[in-house]
Design a protein that fits this description.
Layout: H1 7-15, H2 20-34, E1 38-39, E2 45-51, E3 63-67, E4 82-83, E5 89-95, E6 101-108, E7 133-137, E8 140-146, E9 171-175, E10 178-183, E11 189-190, E12 192-198, H3 200-206, H4 209-218, E13 226-230, H5 235-241, H6 246-253, H7 255-266, E14 271-281, H8 283-294, E15 299-305, H9 329-336, H10 346-352, E16 356-361, H11 366-380, E17 385-390, H12 396-411, E18 418-419
Parallel strand pairs: 12-13, 12-14, 14-15, 15-16, 16-17
Antiparallel strand pairs: 1-2, 2-5, 3-6, 4-5, 6-8, 7-8, 9-10, 10-13, 11-18
């Protein structure tokens, strides 16, 4: 049977020992073989452990285990760990839903939680994480927490083949000052569908999406495609550019596509015309939906995970606004505005809008209610879409599962690429 102790049981066990250091060393040796957190087979409890001996640049006064939506925001106090006397170890027992996927890390002397910002990972990952990691940046990054009953999709197995230490093979460049990452299959293809992916600095540099795509395409689990990713150099610029930004959406559906076509041709591929899929999460998800509304004749599918429905074209809007708004701005546009397609009436145009693939995590608070509102608005406007709910928060832990799954679904609706034997 796997070893399990609560935080209080560990403290009591070591406190009663005549040789705390030796007792703990024996326990720790077993723990590191099995991986952390410790899991109780008879309950939903998991015990997270952190060894402060690894911290050499400061005196450790407190440690907080940050688990996306379990120990952050209003639940932040549930993550403060307890020191095991006579050792450098810190422990915290938390109830974890069995179907949850979540990112977690350890915050040292961090006090109240403040999000570090887009593509920033200033906190310690778990070196003994039993489910591996989402992001590795030396001793820092994000580890992956998975309950025993997580829902698997056909594409989930691909992440087991990812080497986070291996550099991405995507082609890097820039367009209008934005970093770009172009993925092309290893074998040259003709008529590749093109995916426009927002926040690709995380997807390719951190999560190594290119390895997942290589595996899924090689195994026949996903049709071949090209992916042009757009990244951002800092959180402030990302916040400023994403949203209902007509200049950005024009760039993504125009010059960015032309750039991808040129690069693909120079590598022995060709990209099919009018087969664009646009995808993003959070603010990138809202931007993707807006692009589909603006350019339904250029986009064939849109994928939006946890779109930021709090956004509106005013200064000062924040995610907290979800608790006070009745109808999000984007939903209002869908219900009241005619998309940019002059040859058709509003209702006809919604019939012509590209199929949408929507996902949200059940632990995203009011976002879940507003996503249902978006779902009902799409139904009323005859906008074809699929809508699923995952057990997670606002989190790459499940976004990375949803994206390949949705890409596979969207790509199978398009004419397939063929191997270029020339």
């Amino acid at each position: 049977m796997p070893i399990f102790y609560t935080d209080d049981q560990l403290i009591e066990l070591i406190s009663q020992s005549n040789d705390p250091s030796n007792t703990w060393s024996t326990i720790w040796e077993t723990i590191t073989r099995e991986g952390t957190p410790l899991m109780d087979e008879d309950s939903l409890r998991m015990t997270f452990l952190f060894d402060a001996a690894a911290v050499s640049d400061m005196d450790v006064e407190s440690v907080h285990v940050w688990i996306n939506r379990l120990t952050d925001k209003e639940r932040v106090t549930q993550g403060f760990m307890k020191n095991i006397p006579g050792t450098t170890m810190w422990a915290r027992t938390v109830e974890v839903p069995p179907s949850l996927r979540a990112a977690y890390c350890f915050r040292i002397n961090a006090g109240e939680h403040r999000p570090p910002g887009h593509n920033r990972y200033p906190h310690r990952r778990d070196p003994h994480a039993r489910n591996g990691h989402l992001v590795i940046d030396g001793d820092y990054g994000l580890s992956l927490l998975q309950g025993p009953d997580v829902v698997e999709v056909p594409e989930s197995s691909a992440w087991q083949h990812v080497d986070l230490a291996h550099p991405s093979r995507s082609i890097t460049s820039s367009i209008s000052g934005l970093p770009t990452y172009l993925y092309l299959p290893i074998i040259p293809h003709k008529d590749l569908p093109l995916v426009i992916l927002i926040d690709a600095d995380v997807w390719f540099q951190r999560l190594k999406l290119d390895q997942v795509l290589d595996y899924l395409i090689a195994q026949g689990h996903m049709p071949a495609c090209a992916v042009l990713g757009i990244g951002f150099t800092d959180p402030a610029k990302r916040r400023r550019l994403l949203g209902a930004n007509n200049e950005l959406t024009a760039l993504l559906t125009g010059p960015a596509v032309e750039y991808a076509q040129r690069q693909a041709q120079s590598a022995g591929h060709t990209i099919a015309h009018d087969t664009i899929i646009i995808a993003g999460q959070s603010l990138g998800g809202l931007t993707s939906l807006w692009a589909a509304l603006r350019y339904p004749d250029r986009i064939r599918s849109v994928i939006a995970s946890s779109p930021s429905l709090w956004w509106r074209p005013e200064d000062g809007c924040t995610p907290a606004d979800l608790a006070t708004i009745n109808v999000p701005w984007l939903v209002e546009q869908i219900l009241t505005e005619t998309p940019n397609h002059s040859a058709h009436s509003a209702s006809d145009t919604c019939d012509m809008l590209p199929p949408a693939y929507l996902d949200v995590g059940i632990r995203e608070g009011m976002s879940v209610a507003h996503m249902h509102g978006l779902h009902f608005a799409m139904i009323s406007r005859n906008w074809e879409h699929k809508f699923d709910i995952w057990d997670g928060g606002h989190d790459f832990a499940w976004w990375r599962e949803a994206l390949p799954h949705r890409l596979s679904q969207a790509l199978r609706t398009l004419p397939p690429a063929t191997v270029n034997y020339q």
